[in-house]
Specification:
Elements lengths: L4 H15 L1 E5 L2 H10 L3 E3 L8 E4 L13 H4 L19 E6 L3 E8 L3 H4 L2 H5 L2 E3 L6 E3 L2 E2 L2 E2 L6 E3 L2 H10 L6 E5 L4 E6 L4 E4 L10 E7 L5
Antiparallel strand pairs: 1-12, 2-14, 3-14, 4-12, 4-14, 5-11, 5-13, 6-7, 6-10, 8-9
The structure holds fe (ii) ion.
The site of fe (ii) ion has 3 residues, from loops.
Amino acid sequence: MTESPDDVLAQMIRDCRQNGWASSVMPFFYVESFARENGWEPVATRRGDSSISRLKPTETNAANPRSISAVSGSGEQLLHVDGAHLHTVPDLVVMHASIPSPTPTRMWKPGFDIRHSHAVRHGVFLVGSGRQTFLATAVDDCGLRFDPYCMVPGDKRARDAWTTLTTYGDIHEHRWDVPNSLLFVDNRAVLHGRAKAVADQDRELTRVAYQAGTSK
Ligand SMILES: [Fe+2]
């Protein structure tokens, strides 16, 4: 018997929660409908933006100054969670590519020892900028909050946490090599980032961050 899109998406959520990510192949509108039915809340990760983002390689001088591209351009991104600058970090990131791209998305799930290390649990970072700045640790009861593009270490422990969380272990690469490739990332357990896309200027992903209640 063929599985319905809803069955596949429900299994993806279980796999994502267990492994940190899950992938499948289907048009994006199935995800939007599944999200509505299950009460997932789409989160705009930048104020004033739509919750649905079109991610394209953008050179530093053309990028939104608050975006990762303003720093990394179309080079390799440091691994991060999405929405680390928000008081409530979204727990699920959904990415989708209608058209294949040769540029993978890289993911790393820091292990228990890292997430529970003294530095990561207690190092204090300044998060965001200007009036929106607040203090936070790189992990809380709901999981990771780490984005080296919007978090500045505020003490020695945070500097150690920064080093730990930018010294990657086993990286998994999701390859966007078929049309309608779909990726779920547990945004409170896994850091992600785009590989170098200098030779892939046509790459376009759709990305939505959700508060889905799917994290541990
Ligand atoms: Fe991201």
